[in-house]
Amino acid sequence: MSTDLLGMKVRRLRSTDSFEELTHLLHRAYAPLAAAGMRFFATHQTVRDTKDRALLGECYVIDDGKRLLGTITLKHPARAGASPGRVSLYNRPDVCVFNQLGVEPSLKGRGLGRLLMETVEKRAVNLGARGIACDTAETAEELRATYERRGFVFAEHVQWDETNYRSVVLVKWFDSAVS
Known about the structure:
Layout: E1 3-5, E2 8-12, H1 19-35, H2 47-55, E3 58-63, E4 68-75, E5 95-103, H3 112-126, E6 131-137, H4 141-149, E7 153-158, E8 167-173
Parallel strand pairs: 5-6
Antiparallel strand pairs: 1-2, 2-3, 3-4, 4-5, 6-8, 7-8
C-alpha cells in the first residue's frame, strides 16, 4: 500500500526501517504532551518497546524517501486486546485498535495524521471490523477534538499503569447501528 501526499508515501513498515528512528520520531511527536505534564508511553518508550508494539499489528509509516515522518500501528480485532478485561472494547472481535500515532512536529497541520488515520480506518473496514478504537489522555483536549471530528465517540475510561493520567477510550463505528 502506498498513498501519496506531497511526495510523501504511506506504506507498511519494512524490515530495513530503523526502530531507533521510529522511536525518536515518536519521542519528538509526543514531546509537547510531555511538556504539558502528560506521560504518554510514547514519550519515553525504548527502542525495544517501539519494536514490540509495532510488531503486534500492522505498522504504517510516512516517509519522504529519506526519513520517517509519521507512523501509526493498527491491531487486528483478533489481536487487539492489549490488556484482557481492562478495556472491554479492546477485547471485542469486531473492533480494531490503533496506537503509536505520531507525526514529525514540524509537519503538523499538513494532513499527515489525517492520511495515517484514513489508512488504518480503511484497513480496519477491509479486515471486517465494525469499529476502530484508541485511547488518549482525558486532558488532551486537542487530540480528543481531532478524533471527535473524525467521528470518534467516548466509550469508557481506563487508568494505565504506565501513564500519569486517566485515559478516555474512543471508538468510531463504521455502521451507525453498532454500539
